[in-house]
Amino acid sequence: MPGFPMDPAVRYGKLENGLTYYIRHNEEPKDRASFYIAQKVGAVQEDDNQRGLAHFLEHMCFNGTKNFPGNKVVEYCETIGVKFGYNLNAYTAADETVY
């Protein structure tokens, strides 16, 4: 079955590492950029002994890093106008995980 036709305003391509990207200009929200990282992985790929792992890993991205320990990444994002849960969020579905 053929896919949906591509919007001619969308620029897209594939990087050497396999990442496929899509870029489209929007007038709204004004003076902002939005992006999503969508991975083709989710709960359906889990074995019985891995149940919940995809969702757990999704939450781990908000648990801090070496340079942003604890909640510092969220705190930093909030200082530049990003609202946690509204602008900064993620979800895991059966066949995808989106940040």
CATH topology: Cytochrome Bc1 Complex, Chain A, domain 1
Give the structural class. Answer: alpha+beta
In N-to-C order, the SSE pattern is EEEHHEE
CATH superfamily: Metalloenzyme, LuxS/M16 peptidase-like
SSE diagram, text form:
Layout: E1 11-14, E2 20-23, E3 38-39, H1 53-60, H2 72-79, E4 91-92, E5 97-98
Antiparallel strand pairs: 1-2, 3-5, 4-5
Would you write up a description of this structure?
- By secondary structure, the protein is α+β, with helices and mostly antiparallel strands.
- The chain contains two helices and five strands.
- The strands form two sheets. It has a three-stranded antiparallel β-sheet, with helices on one face. A two-stranded antiparallel sheet has the order 1-2.
- A hairpin with a 4-residue loop joins strand 4 and strand 5.
- The chain is flat.
- The chain starts with 10 loop residues before the first strand and ends with a strand.
Summarize the structure in short.
By secondary structure, the protein is α+β, with helices and mostly antiparallel strands.
